[in-house]
Amino acid sequence: MQGTNRHTARARSSPIPARLRLEGGVTLITLMIGLAVGSIVLAGIYTTFNMQANAYLREQQLVDVQQTVRLVKSMMIRDLHRAGYNPTRAGFSGVTGNATLVQIQADLDGDTSTTGQNENITYSYDEGSSRLLRNSGAAQTQFSNIQAFTATYLDDTGSTAAVPADIRHVHLSITVRTALSDPNYPLNGGYRSVTFQFRVAPRNLAL
After folding, report:
1. 160-169: long-range contacts (C-beta < 8 A, 24 or more apart)?
2. Which domain holds residue 75?
3. If you write DSSP's letter for every residue of 33-84 in order, what string do you get?
4. To the nearest whole percent, how much of the chain has pLDDT over 90?
5. Is the pLDDT of residue 158 over 80?
6. Which of 117, 169, 181, 201 counts the highest number of beta carbons within 10 A?
7. In whole angstroms, how far apart are CA 73 and each of 69, 76, 175?
């Protein structure tokens, strides 16, 4: 009887073979499930991050568009308000041009010519490169991503001016688009844009 008990005790105390042990209760199926769940979580995190990154990029591009709008508008209004300043009654037209080019002249230093700094400014639109160039002689400013630019010259009745001497107002329509296209935006080839219009009445043209 005692021999039997000793045999049973030895059997109970025999170590479990290493190949049958389950470390912490983890099985292959548990590992596979964990990996699958982890992959789903990572995919969700990546999708969320990607969506947030794209949203930030869209917002940043719209901010850039608005900044371009404000800069172009403020510069053109400032330059046009100087147009026609002519204290010596020298022979030049304050504003000339066509639909895609605006030339602004002013004798700011009163030396009977328009060769000084910022006295002869040209805004020219290049549709092929979507650029608006401001040329003041020595300096040139370039505005990119200009999708459209149209200048209209009006007389004191609001009709199209027949000659430069009749110009009293300059009406401008400018469209600025984002630098990059958005594949999720269905219009305009994926480019978001802002069109702004404004009219300037150069005070010196009526003098």
Report:
1. 164/93, 164/94, 164/95, 164/96, 165/93, 167/93, 167/94, 167/95, 167/96, 167/205, 168/201, 168/202, 168/205, 168/206, 169/199, 169/200, 169/201
2. 43-206
3. HHHHHHHHHHHHHHHHHHHHHHHHHHHHHHHHHHHHHHHHHHHHHHHHHHTT
4. 63
5. yes
6. 169
7. 6, 5, 11
Is the model's pLDDT at 139 over the cut of 90? Answer: no
Report the alpha-carbon distance of residue 27 to residue 123 in Å, rounded: 74
pLDDT at residue 7 is higher than 50: no
Q: Residue 17 domain-assigned?
A: no
At 53, the amino acid letter reads A
Tally the domains of the chain. Answer: 1
User: Can you tell me whether residue 204 is helix, strand or coil?
Assistant: helix
**CA 24 from centre of chain:** 56
| 23 occurs within a structural domain | no
Q: Is the pLDDT score of 16 beyond 90? A: no
pTM: 0.74
Contacts of 8 (CB under 8 A, 6+ apart): none
Does residue 28 lie within any of the structural domains?
no
